[in-house]
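Memo to structure team: turn this sequence into structure tokens by end of day. - J.P.
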Amino acid sequence: MTINQLFKKTPTLDILNSLLNTYGIKSLKDTNTFSKKDLENYGTLQKIKIILPVLNDFYLPCKQKVYLKNLTTKKLITILRQFLRIFKYYLYSKEKYIKNEKIIVYQILPMEKKIIEKKNKQGGCTISFD
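Reply from structure team:
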């Protein structure tokens, strides 16, 4: 039985915490930012290969082939986004310039903040026709 288009069973909080540890994140409440370069320096790609059999148990077989084979740092970010979505969190991304190089930094935030941001961005305008 599937729970959504990605997972055949719901990931547990323990699995999420072990996944976060491979990214160098302590918990969901961790507000530190990270980039793809940080993931490479931390060795996330090698660390996630250790828990890969556990992740295979949660993904649908057709999605395992897409997301868990030929891992790259881009796929690592995607996997993290997918697991966070189940627990009502999202991965906030922002472009930053560091030493004249544009990088994308990521931060874990609760979904409530995303909803508040959208409400703040919705502006109103009045159009009048004469």
